[in-house]
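Q: What does the assembly look like in three dimensions?
Context provided by user:
Components: two
Sequences:
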Amino acid sequence: MRNLKRLVIVFSLVFLLVGCNDQKIIETLGLMSVMCFDKATDSVEGNMLVTSTFPSITEESNRKETTIDTIAFSKKDAERKLAAKTEQEIVNGQIRSLIFSEDFAADGINQIIHSVERDQEIGSQVKVVISEGEASAILEAIPTESTGNYVDKMLRKESDQFNIPYLDIHYFSRDMHDDGIEPVAPLVGIEDGEVVVKGAALFRDDRYVGKLTIQESKLLLLMRGKVKKSDLVIKIPQETGYRTLYFTYNHSKAETKVKKKGTEIEQVDIHVSMVGSLLEDTGTKMNGNSSTDNNEVQKLIDGYLSNEAVRLIEILKEKKADSLGIKGYVRNSLTYQEWKKIKEEDLFQKIPINVTFSVILQNKGMLE
Amino acid sequence: MIRRKPKKLIKKLKELNDQQHSEPSLELSLYEQVVNELEGCSDREDIHFPELQVNLIYFNHLVDKDRFQSEILDPFYHVTKEELSSLLKRSFYKPVADLKEVIDGILDGETAIFDKERVFLANVAGGEKRNIQPSETETAITGPHEGFIESGETNLSMIRRRVRTSRLKVNKLPVGEVTKTNAFLLYVKGIANDELVTELTHRIEKIEIDAVYDAHMLSQLIEDQPHSLFPQFITRERPDSIAAGLVEGKIIIILEGSPAIIIAPSSFFDFFETGDDYYQRWLTGTATRLLRFGAFIITIAFTALYVSVTTFHYEMIPESLLTTLAVSRSKVPFNPIYEAFLMEMTIEFLREAGARLPTKVGQTIGIVGGIVIGQAAVQAGITSNVLIIVVAISAIASFVVPSYVMSASIRLGRFGLILLAGLLGNLGIMIGITILVIHLSSLTSVGAPYMSPLSPFFPKDWKDFLLRAPYKMMKTRPTMARSSNKSKQRND
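A: Here is the predicted structure of the complete assembly.
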């Protein structure tokens, strides 16, 4: 009997909490799946133009997408203003992409990343995306009725193929705060009225500073660490036209070593080893007998990648974007006092970086 | 719930009973006293043999008529006055001297024989009873099909035939001040724990109630925590399950007039086991068992999860599913919690109506319910499609639990969880489950922990818990039976 009383008491205590709830019944919600940030100039209401899209369900139980925009001072301010423009309760728990225009991101996106990281409703599936040109134009260019989902799937696919950098906002935010590495983000753009994944966007702290093509972005990922499965189309100039190689690698890893003389940093070595297969080669005649010389192709790919790597590092140094995390490796090889002493703005530009590749051709497809 | 009568009243009743037996003056003969006692019982039969000066008193419908004819009437018709005393010396005729004993004997179906001042009881008890049939609440696919019936003796015989050892002991304990129903307490000496036997005997003897009609009623009278939502003794209707219980060192209680037989002590997880688990291959048996535990979780929490997710936690669901949910709920005018209660209630109505109605009308209810729930409710915009699926799955899952009593308890618990989910979302579900776990772990069944072997943790018993291990591995009796003889297989 005493147990029963206790149970009843505990059960009824729950009712005291009832006032503390915040009901969000799904059909009343406007579920934002994407938020676009553009720069708003000459406006007194705010400095950003925020466009968002969310599905609304009509009387006939059909799904229809609504796009609205507003000018605001901050992300939360924008949400409030967007909510005022619709009958639905605007929520951001299903948000998947934050698309920033180049102009907007060049001024820094720290404030918005912070706001997203603080929000308890937003999980780790949010992506930071940079768009060439206006961010809101991306939404208009997408053909389907569920825009957010489209962007999400498109980027996820590219990321799974190691064409563009990671998508998780926590990684972005971590790299943003780390003094040893700068964040990168996927870059999208519009070509002939269609949305295309363009490559990677480079950041210095929270500011957008430059971009890489898909090919460069792949190389960046190769030099940063492990890549599970991806491919490269390699074009080597010949006397007449190009020789094209299609190299798919299913395993690649990068090792970074810091060479020191005393406390002086001499050089940073990055060694990338790749294992894969050659599935296309326009330089050989495709008859089973005349096999391509493995060593020759390996050297070709090797040379090509090394050249490209040098070019990539030049771009990075020019943009002052240490997306490879070189500073981090240097920092980790030193004591904290030493690191504090040599830590300066142009450290990354000063350090010589040497990239070597070792390519192993496992097979040439089904040919042999 | 049956209230126990206040002690005073029961004492009075007892005194009254005793008075009835002892009051009649000494001048009356025992025969006259019995006749007085049975005054007004028009179904009583009274036969006189004037030349023998013998009277018989019995109830015609309580005796086996053929045996009565051949074993009692025939001898008395043919015996002479001189031979009578030698006839009555046979052990078949049990001499008694006490009025109470005579009355009890007659009510048990015995025949009282009055020869001048001497009284004898002759046992030709019989009467109508149901034939042995397969149990309806505990059907078997593999394994023996016979089920218990309402006759205690028949049930005893079915058990004795399966456990053929002299160590199978039976205590007869009458229950009920008015009904004097016989309860039989069975155990295998040397395997069952003696303390448990004493404790259960004591509990049954302590019951002071007018009547006990069914084993489920008896089990509520001897439970450790009668206020709990959950039954603490499992009842079975198949002799093979009972035999298994006896051999495991458990104690069996048969109640006269009830086809259900109590196994004590029982754990919560016993309610999810069936005989089929043991007769099928061990992998199939294990899979079925896991399926049942899965069904338990679904039946208790699935509707609650729907309510909590649609009311509070939209961010938990993948976007594509969310759209489906939102579309299906868009026409519904109610909050998810009202919607869920409405549908759960409808299902309960249907179940209850179906359980009580005769089969032919029951089918009509099934069709009407199917249309109402399946189509009309959705088309009218009262509920959402997804909720119908959720409620239907929970309802089906609730019937996967083999014990009807347990299944009913779980279904009731589900309503509490839905309410909490509607008020506080996932936090509410967590609070509900926490209360449930605390309550279940605090329960005991004749002192044995209800949640064993999960808590307290008895690793040896896990071979017959979530999985039904191969027989070669199951070498020990369950810990909760506290058997003095722990091993049930030779250790090779």
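Follow-up: The mean pLDDT of chain B is 88.
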